[in-house]
Design a protein that fits this description.
Number of strands of chain A: 6
Helix content of chain A: 25-40%
Oligomer: heterodimer
Number of domains of chain B: 1
Distance between the termini of chain A: 82 Å
CATH topology of the domain at 64-174 in chain A: Nucleotidyltransferase, domain 5
Strand content of chain A: 15-25%
Largest sheet of chain B: 5 strands, mixed
Order of helices and strands of chain A: HEEEEHHEHEH
Strand order of the largest sheet of chain A: 4-3-2-5-6
Number of helices of chain A: 5
Radius of gyration of chain B: 25 Å
Order of helices and strands of chain B: HEEEEHHHHHEHE
Radius of gyration of chain A: 34 Å
Distance between the termini of chain B: 75 Å
């Protein structure tokens, strides 16, 4: 392939011809290199961009009078516990109401089914409050935010856990 | 009967246009590629179905590793130059031009401001080996809040991304989020990995 072709000299004619050098160069190694670099840069650029999920936190210092009170019938609370445990109840978690705390899991048939149930889906005003306990992992929080996105739940908020909720979980675990 | 002569074509073809195109693309990707600065902290991010991409520039990344240490990084040399000046003025530390230069080229860091000067004086090799304690986020001494505030003053366009490890206790994440909220940042991004969206819905 390396093309420095020489014309065969017949040896007959006395005329000496100037040697004709072919101008062709074998470009295969260069092409190889070019495409190697191309592949490298293409792969590095696409993988460098991480995915993100945007999250909006409620504004903190809103005066009491301007806050909108959430009705208990439109509220659902998800509590994230330690060791990847997850609990939920409907309502605001007032001890007087005696909310029924139910344990579920992160699988497809767990919390996702709850969020897809008619009780949540058919209520446009349903607000889901996510209360991660201090022991829960960061992955749990991202997972649950993800579930809300998958089930297309519009109204949700990340809320700090209250003592009432901790109490509820403790009684539930104690059972 | 004369023998049928098979015409022999030269199998080499003209590759010049292909090479042209190849190098054009190489040049394009080389110029658009931004080298990722060396990361001192390994963070295994959780996965999500979210498909939003993080912007290329003007991003503050707050990394939280699995030992609950907090690391801070912001892109843009100009931003970092302004930031170090502001921090120096606020904390009354004088940084030399050399140290400022080092800071503007640095990726993540996780040292309290009091130790920052000696940290910047180290050679880059030493800096990689040193065990960084993380940026203080306790309510008594919250330096992360200062970093965020001063960065936003240096470059108002920045957006904030939190990059948490899978195994971080939510307690630490809560502290970071509270810090951000104290500084009136109510919208931020959580960096996640890709995950296929379930289809049977």
């Amino acid at each position: 392939m390396a093309e420095v072709q020489q014309q065969a000299d017949s040896g007959k004619g006395g005329k000496k011809r100037a040697k004709k050098m072919s101008t062709k160069i074998d470009m295969t190694p260069m092409v190889d290199l070019a495409f190697l670099l191309l592949t490298f840069f293409m792969l590095t650029t696409t993988f460098a961009k991480p995915q993100t999920m945007e999250i909006n936190m409620p504004v903190k210092d809103v005066p009491k009078e301007e806050q909108i009170v959430l009705k208990a019938s439109n509220a659902m609370t998800i509590i994230l516990g330690d060791n990847d445990r997850i609990f939920y109840y409907f309502g605001l978690g007032d001890p007087a109401e005696n909310p029924e705390l139910i344990e579920t899991d992160y699988s497809d048939s767990g919390i996702r089914d709850v969020l897809r149930s008619p009780k949540v889906k058919n209520n446009d005003k349903m607000t889901v409050m996510i209360k991660p306990m201090d022991e829960s992992r960061y992955k749990n929080v991202v997972d649950i935010l993800d579930e809300l996105r998958i089930t297309d739940t519009k109204k949700y908020a990340l809320v700090e856990i209250t003592d009432n909720d901790k109490q509820l979980v403790e009684t539930k675990i104690g059972q | 009967m004369p023998k049928v002569k098979v015409k022999r074509n030269n199998p080499s073809l003209d590759m010049t246009p292909m090479v042209d195109l190849g190098f054009l693309l190489v040049t394009f990707f080389m110029l658009t590629a931004t080298m990722t600065p060396d990361e001192v902290v390994v963070v295994d991010t959780p996965s999500s179905v979210s498909e939003t991409k993080l912007p290329d520039s003007n991003v503050i990344t707050i990394s939280i590793d699995n030992e609950d240490r907090v690391f801070y990084s912001v892109d843009g040399q100009n931003t970092k130059m302004k930031l170090i000046d502001k921090i120096a003025a606020k904390y009354g530390i004088n940084f030399t031009d050399e140290e400022k230069k080092t800071f503007s080229l640095m990726g993540d860091f996780g040292v309290p401001i009091a130790q920052l000067k000696s940290f910047l004086d180290m050679s880059s090799k030493e800096r990689q080996q040193v065990n960084q304690p993380g940026i203080p986020i306790d309510s008594a001494k919250n330096e992360l809040g200062d970093w965020v505030l001063q960065t936003r003053l240096s470059n108002p366009k920045v957006i904030i991304a939190v990059k948490g490890d899978v195994d971080v206790n939510y307690d630490t994440v809560q502290k970071v989020i509270n810090t951000l909220q104290d500084k009136k940042v109510n919208r931020f991004n959580l960096i996640t990995d890709m995950e296929a969206k379930p289809r049977n819905l």
